[in-house]
Design brief:
The protein is of the alpha+beta class. The chain has ten helices and nine strands.
Length: 399
């Protein structure tokens, strides 16, 4: 933002016009989910780039003692040591383009270390002391800085290797861009094709969407929608934090534990069939605005394992508070992680309240039996059995 503001001030001075006001607007609103303010701590970076892409290169200006200023490329092996001297007090050289793999890991095709591999190495936990993990906010900056460098280099490779991507096949697109530029009497820019192999690109999203729709067309609506969420209180996270640290200080640890637990969870479902035999699934990992990762999974079962009856649904899904005497561990998990609210008259200022009504439609009605619906969500069993938990000083029951 400072760069944009400085450029605006310089340009207006040259043109002799009043300086425009440059602001960063964080829009709030129930329907602007993409631009809602974060509700929890998260690690992020703000950068300036074309079309929202990370910049392919970022030169750093230094002022050596007694010399004129110099610029250092973002690919320089000395850059990390100069920006993060507390992490590299001896001025250790970082990754450079000629850095080779260990002979045991080198292949004929890949014998040099990529940026991604280098930072994976830097962020690996070992028995030796690593000051990076004690940096807290500086470590967070180091992590997002590394991410932008990696993504910027990947985009630069795509930009500089359009011939290898067969971009000449997009002649119609080039013609359209040139015609549009001529109509506006402007000079057309360079057209760069972003292939579907780049994760997160519009083409990748479109192909994934089409694949998902093909699965739906073949097997019908999914049988289960599962959300698996990272819990910062997992012992694998809390037991590996350094004294005085919080999970937000160690995004590497949080993501590593989440990935390992997710792998075990998916193995139970797809390899061991604990919920039934799965014939297809679609999944996506998100961070959204809540800081911690979570995954959404849609899946189809074979016909014999489909949840088409109330009994079948009740065998896998429960919307009720468990019996504390029978399973105290499950009771504590449900009480801590799975209770909505309270909201409504008990808490009218809850984030889920809009126009005085809970957007998640809580509280529900007591329901003696699960009702399976053909189109839509089932109405789960919610017995009026007197079981309650106390949340924020309020009693919450199965509704």
């Amino acid at each position: 933002m400072a760069k944009i503001e400085d450029e605006e001030v310089r340009q207006t001075a040259l043109e002799g016009r009043p300086t425009s006001i440059v602001k960063m607007s964080l829009l709030e609103g129930g329907d602007r989910r993409r631009y809602n303010l974060p509700s929890h701590e998260e690690v992020a970076i703000v950068f300036v780039g074309d079309d929202g892409a990370p910049p392919p290169s970022r030169e750093v200006v230094i002022y050596p003692r007694g010399q004129a200023l110099k610029t250092i490329s973002s690919m320089s092996a000395n850059l990390d040591s100069m920006i993060y001297p507390i992490f590299f007090p001896r001025g250790d050289a970082g990754r450079h383009e000629q850095l080779e793999h260990h002979p045991d890991r080198a292949t004929r095709v890949r014998n040099r270390v990529t940026l991604s591999q280098y930072y994976n190495y830097r962020l690996s936990v070992r028995e030796t002391f690593n000051p990076i993990f004690y940096g807290k906010k500086l470590f967070q900056q180091y992590a997002v800085d590394a991410y932008v460098k990696i993504e910027g280099q990947r985009l630069a490779f795509i930009r500089n290797n359009q011939n290898r991507l067969r971009s000449e096949q997009y002649d119609t697109l080039y013609e359209h861009v040139n015609n549009a530029a001529n109509n506006l009497n402007v000079r057309p820019g360079r057209v760069v094709i972003l292939p579907s192999s780049y994760v997160g690109s519009p083409r990748a999203l479109k192909e994934n969407f089409e694949d998902a729709m093909a699965i739906i067309k073949r097997y019908g609506k999914p049988d289960l929608f599962i959300t698996f969420t990272c819990n910062p209180k997992w012992k694998e996270i809390t037991e590996n934090l350094n004294p005085g640290e919080s999970p937000s200080d160690r995004p590497d640890l949080v993501c590593r534990v989440f990935k390992m637990k997710l792998k075990c969870f998916l193995d139970d479902i797809f390899k061991h069939g604990v919920l039934g035999k799965v014939i297809s699934h679609v999944q996506v990992i998100e961070f959204q605005k809540r800081g911690l990762p979570h995954v959404h999974i849609l899946m189809h079962f074979v016909n014999d394992d489909k949840l088409e009856t109330a009994e079948g649904i009740d065998s896998l899904i429960s919307a009720e508070i468990p019996d504390q005497t029978v399973d105290p561990e499950l009771f504590e998990i449900i009480k801590t992680c799975m209770i909505h609210g309270p909201c409504g008259i008990l808490n009218p200022n809850s984030s889920c309240i809009k126009d005085g009504i809970c957007t998640k439609k809580f509280p529900k009605e007591f329901n003696p039996h699960t009702v399976a619906t053909f189109n839509g969500y089932p109405h789960y069993r919610r017995l009026d059995n007197g079981r309650v938990v106390v949340i924020k000083g309020n009693q919450v029951d199965n509704r």
